[in-house]
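residues and backbone:
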Amino acid sequence: MTIKLKGDKAFEAAPSLKNKALRINLNEHIYGTFAEIGAGQETVRNFFRAGGGSGTIAKAMSAYDKDFSDAIYGIEDDKRYVTEARLKKMLDHEMNLLEERISRDKHPNKLFFSYANTVATIDFAKKYKGHGWIGLRFQVNATDEFSDIILHVRFKENDARLQQNTLGALGTNLIYGAYYKHNNPKKLLTYLYDHLDKDQIEIDTINFSGPLFRNVDNRLMSLQLVKHGMTDAVMFSPDGKNLLAGKILYKKNILALRGSFRPVTKVNMDMFKKSYDMFINDNKVDKNKTEVIFEITLSNLKEGLSEINERDFLDRAELLCSLGHTVMISNFQEYYKVAQYFNKFTKKRLGLAMGALNLIELFDEKYYRDLPGGILEAFGKLATSDIRVYVYPFTGEDGELMNIDNIKVHPRMKDLYKFFKYNGKMIDIKNADLSILDIYSRKVLKMIENNEKGWESMLPDGISEIIKKQSLFGYEAEEEIDFEEDEEYSGSF
């Protein structure tokens, strides 16, 4: 493999797609099937062209016609074809056939795999760029149970043929990475983009399962997707499973709360409960079609560090999930980008809950210097969204209660502030618990780290017990001395 120079550093160039496919083909043990729906047989094409595929490719098929596909894999309850459920049925069906038709007695060392994808490429009107599900079921030891890697992608290119080629490259990278990089899932993720660019395809969901990945936390894998720019945001459920944003948010009312949640405090939960009550009582909001999202940004996770503290991230997620909430990790520093992201999935009313201090930052010009139109462009984007900002009060230095009526913004921003205020875009959160306004996450965190007393009462019920039990956020239990058993303290005083 050639070594190229990049700047002053040497690095090992990624193998070509042909060499990746050839290495798989020349491995006498790797053997499996390809089932590709919606974009031709673009992945298996790379293995055919590389040569030596007769010992690797058991079967390649594309059940392109819907009726024919239904006859093989069954009909989905929702009558859709580009779904995770469809992909899993394809993997199940093809692997079952492989095990039925290939005798383990005759081929005891074969490493079976089943690769599948079900995708929709760009439409003729070029209105919808397309998306798809891709999966691999495989083993690296013939006697092992199978492991799965399943991902969802969104196409970014404006030509169906380009999208097909991109899909073929991604599929080849996935199969190669699964067999030769499975012991390092984080690296495997980055290898998926070998010979591809982020502006060609987006990976917005990935899940690892099975014995090879028993120690993999899929929340951390989600974090890697955002960290490496493979997607702008990821979501996971209270049970820690990765979620497809489009499936969860489609045509929903959405209430989002941004914070550090380090740790989640009584103020965070009071802000949530009071803003939620106001949101669902809005006549344009359907309570039964409302999703609540607790959002943490990458910049918040770094907090001045060069790298993200993954343990710290999991600590925050653990507590939010324990309270039954859906968590979103995003690369959006500005609020208008959050609104734009949600508007990709819904045109229904949105809600953003934030503290009054955050509202001051919302009107700070420095956060919009990368936009040609500056803060006016950003607020223009917000104005086009059906959005309400719910503002939680705070106590000023002089003890005055600060809300949208007396918050002070830069003189240049006063007219813009008034426009949003009097057009009903900003609403004070009513009935906030004024007795807890002096609780701040950073204050609680410092108390935990310094082993100070009293921080437990600042957190929602049950949260302090989790922190103590799992030693989150640097918590260290005080050692208790057993005076009866310790010889140094034996005898009378």
Notes: Confidence is low (pLDDT under 50) at residues 1-11, 485-493. The longest helix spans residues 160-180. Residues 2 and 425 are 57 Å apart (CA to CA). The domain at 8-216 is CATH 3.90.950.20 (Maf protein).
